[in-house]
Amino acid sequence: MIEEFCPKCGKPNVSQSAWCEYCLTYFNEYGKDVTLYCPECSHPNDYNSSHCEVCYEPLKPGQVE
Ligand SMILES: [Zn+2]
Ligand SMILES: [Zn+2]
Predict the structure, then answer these.
(1) What is the pTM of this model?
(2) Mind listing the pLDDT tens digit for each residue in 44-61?
């Protein structure tokens, strides 16, 4: 398994992860202005948001609600 190290917290994640499973920082889009669409209502949220600002749905898998 190939691992990718988080640019923020330095912990290893599996390479196909879109974000760090520890600190939820995006890998490929790190430092860029990326929109994170809500899986529930499709509202565009800031990529650093952990929850949708409209319906408060968690935007990233593995989060505790
Ligand atoms: Zn991290
Ligand atoms: Zn939403």
Answers:
(1) 0.46
(2) 998 778 899 999 999 877
